[in-house]
C-alpha cells in the first residue's frame, strides 16, 4: 500500500524537500524490495512514491488512462507489500524505523522521518 512507501520515506538532509529526488525509503528493505520487483512495477513506484511525479504526467508518459494507472499502482503496491513481508518481517508489519534485519542500519541513524 501507499503507506509502506510513505511511512518509510525520509527527506535527505543533503537534498532537502525542494530537490528533484524528494526522498528515499528510510529502510533499505523497501529499496531492496523495489529492486526485485517487475521492472514496470519498480519504475512506477519509484516515479510516483519516491520522486513524487504527478500521476497525470506518469499516465501520459505510459500512454494510459488515469484509471488504468490507478490499477497499475494498486497492483504494484500489493506486490511491494508482499515482497517487503517476505524479506523483512519487521518492515512487513509496518515498523520500518524499528528494522534491524541488516538492510539499513546506516539509514536509520542519519535521517529524519517525513510525513
UniProtKB/TrEMBL annotation:
<dbReference type="InterPro" id="IPR036388">
    <property type="entry name" value="WH-like_DNA-bd_sf"/>
</dbReference>
<dbReference type="InterPro" id="IPR013324">
    <property type="entry name" value="RNA_pol_sigma_r3/r4-like"/>
</dbReference>
<protein>
    <recommendedName>
        <fullName>RNA polymerase sigma factor 70 region 4 type 2 domain-containing protein</fullName>
    </recommendedName>
</protein>
Amino acid at each position: 500500500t501507499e503507506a509502506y512507501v510513505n511511512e518509510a520515506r525520509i527527506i535527505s538532509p543533503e537534498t532537502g524537500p525542494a530537490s528533484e529526488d524528494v526522498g528515499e525509503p528510510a529502510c533499505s528493505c523497501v529499496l531492496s524490495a523495489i529492486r526485485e520487483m517487475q521492472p514496470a512495477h519498480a519504475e512506477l513506484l519509484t516515479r510516483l512514491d519516491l520522486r513524487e511525479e504527478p500521476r497525470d504526467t506518469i499516465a501520459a508518459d505510459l500512454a494510459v488512462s488515469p484509471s488504468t494507472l490507478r490499477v497499475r499502482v494498486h497492483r504494484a503496491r500489493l506486490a511491494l507489500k508482499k515482497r517487503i513481508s517476505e524479506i523483512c518481517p519487521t518492515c512487513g508489519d509496518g515498523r520500518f524505523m524499528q528494522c534491524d534485519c541488516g538492510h539499513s542500519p546506516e539509514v536509520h541513524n542519519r535521517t529524519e522521518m517525513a510525513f
